[in-house]
């Protein structure tokens, strides 16, 4: 892309200009369409979500045996939803703008098996691949069989002929690696420069081959893809283009319907639902948004939170260049404490889909990540990894920015916000070792809101 085009774009768009100058922004998506119009323009529908849910149900008998921590949920990988009243009260005091409605935290940090939101998409993709191989090679005769056979030595032996590879900032590798090794696959994980040492150590302890790259996420993915493509027995979990990852995540969004019902939370025209999702490459917030929109239609409003240093989804959509532009083209980049969101270029597949589905996005400075992390720990005794806290500032961005206020007005919600439900999607944290936790907490202490 020529520099002139980029400069012209930046000069003609104040939000993009603020992004370029590392300022926090709130952006309302002008390309949004009602879900009834948006869905038929995509290749996906409720049928895909139901198919994915059915696959996860089929594998539940295997997961229950292979991962005894899922005994309570009978092999289903799901997380609790809890109201965070102390944190809400604290934020209200700090910002002197009370949040209208109630603030909840979706605890994907507690997801079994891998303790991050990646357990939804990545595990789904590995299972789908394993199912395909088993059917192709006659290990399974039909999808009606009891999938507990996947826990057998015979299956492990079978999968040991095959290879799975992935490129990652860390968490995707943990989810792919843990599930794929359990099934018997050989696994190679290509790590970007952000990846924490404990994640590499953990994977190696599971028998995963870890290749460290001295490059950013996009380059680590490129290297991993090239190496995997050279081996016909190898399958690459491709964070930049994967439909299966996306579909795995959609289930998490759709399941909120039942979970909110169980909590007695009403979502309708008078009781809007706002969901704030941390966004890296876009797969997890994108898939969950798609599922939420199918579940709640116009009553749910989804916003993505990104670090000011790596706002790849915002940059992709504001320039309408999607994955053909990177944050480096705006002179951004550099290490962020939100390592799980350190993605310079968005997924084209997801960004083009989200164009008509999500309400918009906002960016968050590293200091705010730290402040949210330490406040949540202090007020609720919940530790989240930095990437996972971004959504909690969402209701304030909604309430205190001009763009946020415009959004509420344009949707006719001004007099309904006192009945709103706000969900900050917590995307990870429970696996962070104590030593690393203490480093984050120490680093964040001075930033308490
Ligand atoms: C990967 C990740 C995200 C974002 O998911 P994407 O699919 O990359 O957008 C958010 N939080 C945590 C903890 C993650 O690991």
Automatic annotation (TrEMBL):
Modified sites of kind N6-(pyridoxal phosphate)lysine: 118
Domain of life: Bacteria
Tryptophan synthase beta chain-like PALP domain mapped to chain residues: 100-400
Record family assignment: Belongs to the serine/threonine dehydratase family. DsdA subfamily.
Keywords, ordered alphabetically: Lyase, Pyridoxal phosphate
Any one GO biological process: D-serine catabolic process
Name by which UniProt lists this protein: Probable D-serine dehydratase
Cofactor: pyridoxal 5'-phosphate
Leading EC class: lyase
Reactions this protein catalyses: D-serine = pyruvate + NH4(+)
Assigned EC number: 4.3.1.18
GO MF terms held by the record: D-serine ammonia-lyase activity; hydro-lyase activity; pyridoxal phosphate binding
